[in-house]
Write a structure and sequence with these properties.
With 469 residues, the chain is mainly alpha-helical. It has a single domain, classed as MFS general substrate transporter like domains (Growth Hormone, Chain: A). The chain has 19 helices and two strands. It has a two-stranded antiparallel sheet. β1 and β2 form a beta hairpin. α4 packs parallel to α6. 53% of the residues are buried.
Length: 469
């Protein structure tokens, strides 16, 4: 039976779940564009080299290492508004995030090489900064909507469902933004890309506003005192927190695998399979099992442990990608076999996809109970930065194989890809996710310590802490 102090700060409604999901619908509408088409837009439409894109992403993450903790501290120190510690930030930054998204896709094809490079650096970093401004308070929101670990698990599922719907428009755009050339090949069409980006950005604003309107903060929290050196103190605690670092690294690698697949498939389906119209299907097929698993993921997580179902699920996904690699060694590879493996692996990844946010909030609860750490926004800022590192890892993993085969946005170069280079492209598309998934399994199963039993103990300790507030 749930303890009274936790019950006092719980009791979420369907409106809260849908509202919370709308936040990730909004975030993934715009973030999905960076996952699905931005890399190919840079290399093929703007004719920017893959090396420049890779360096740009690394530079952006160096800045995020400074910017994210600062913004987390600003939110932790800010005076709450009536009935809102975090929600009002979502309303404030909804429109700026949408405008920054559109700026990344403005037509600068006629600019000089240096001008284009400067423009994409500035707009990409600006988007990352504004996305942080809304993503940190949104991520922290689950901590104050409810204090129940079971209800947070439900919120995690709804958030993941929201991200699925939010990512879909960008994937559809990635499949429909091509035009056929006279020689039968395909090419990205700028007008289709830009119109799609504007529509998606407008929808993100609407979804963010619904998130603000439909969620309620039930757990009262106080702003942190403005103490000198507090940010470094918090980061030191986070770095020595085994659950927090394990889930941060697992989440980083899982996101890297997701983003790698969505980004690399635009090249794979264009040049290896010659099926640009099917570009969105690998991601769709990986998400399809979510539509089934979402009905029992929370129950299975509560019964067997969230750590356990997520870790063994991701191991299953890794196995299917390894099977594709082995079959390719015997000359067996085609688009339908690849899509079938994506669907099968999606069964395994569905659990971590749905429950990863619950694992993160469990780790933040652990820090609160064990170390007395009440800096939710700073904690989530660090977690968000680790996920951004996953974006950087994905960009590197997309572009390094392309560099190896001499890929360029110029048609003269792409037409010169050899059979060996194309096979190398396919091998990278299956081995990289397999390796990343295996690493996620190791971090969750053998490093992340919050088993079902430990979570139960954590809830009792948290209930006592709530009673003292």
């Amino acid at each position: 039976m749930e303890q009274s102090n936790i019950a006092r700060t719980s009791g979420i409604k369907a409106r809260d779940k849908i509202g919370y999901a709308m936040g990730d619908v909004a975030s993934c509408l715009v973030f999905g564009l960076t996952q699905s088409i931005l890399n190919k837009y840079y290399t093929d439409v703007l004719q920017v080299s893959v090396l420049s894109v890779m360096i740009m992403t690394i530079v952006a993450r160096i800045w995020d290492a400074i910017n994210d903790p600062i913004w987390g501290r600003i939110i932790d120190n800010a005076k709450p508004r009536p009935q809102s510690r975090y929600r009002h930030w979502i309303k404030i930054f909804a429109l700026p995030v949408a405008l920054a998204t559109i700026l990344m896709f403005l037509d600068v094809r006629g600019w000089s090489a240096g001008g284009k490079l400067t423009y994409i650096y500035v707009t990409y970093i600006l988007f990352g900064m504004l996305y942080t401004c809304i993503n940190i308070p949104y991520g922290s929101l689950a901590q104050v909507i409810t204090s129940s670990d079971k209800e947070r698990s439900s919120l995690s599922v709804f958030r993941s469902i929201g991200s699925t719907f939010g990512a879909m428009p960008a994937m559809v755009l990635a499949s429909m933004c091509y035009v056929k050339l006279a020689d039968g090949s395909s090419q990205m069409d700028y007008t289709k890309v830009f119109v799609g980006v504007v529509i998606i950005s407008v929808l993100s604003v609407l979804a963010y506003l619904l998130c603000y309107a439909w969620t309620k903060e039930r757990v009262e929290t106080k702003p942190d005192p403005r103490e000198k050196g507090q940010t470094m103190k918090v980061i030191k605690v986070l770095l020595k927190s085994r659950p927090f670092m394990a889930v941060s690294l697992a989440s980083m690698l899982f996101l890297a695998a997701q983003m790698f697949g969505q980004g690399y498939n635009t090249y794979l389906f264009d040049h290896y399979f010659h099926k640009t119209g099917l570009t969105m299907l690998p991601t769709v097929f990986q998400y399809l099992p979510v539509a089934v698993v979402m009905f029992f993921a929370t129950r299975l997580g509560n019964k067997f442990g969230r750590r356990e179902v997520c870790s063994y699920g991701i191991l299953l996904a890794a196995v299917f990608y390894l099977v594709l690699f082995v079959l390719a060694l015997f000359g067996i590879s085609n688009v339908w076999l690849y899509l079938a493996a994506c669907l099968a692996s999606g069964v395994g990844t569905a659990f971590i996809f749905l429950l990863i946010w619950a694992l993160a909030t469990d780790a933040i609860d652990y820090n609160k109970v064990t170390f007395g750490l009440n800096d939710e926004a700073t904690s989530y800022a660090f977690y968000s930065f680790m996920r951004k590192l996953g974006q950087t890892v994905a960009t590197i993993l997309i572009n390094v194989p392309l560099l190896r085969i001499g890929y360029s946005g110029s048609k003269l170069n792409t037409e010169g890809l050899t059979d060996e280079a194309l096979q190398s492209m396919y091998n990278s598309s299956v081995m990289i996710p397999a390796i990343l998934f295996l690493l996620v399994f190791v971090f969750l199963r053998f490093v992340y310590p919050l088993s079902k039993e430990r979570i139960a103990e954590l809830q009792k300790a948290k209930d006592e802490m709530l009673g003292k507030q």
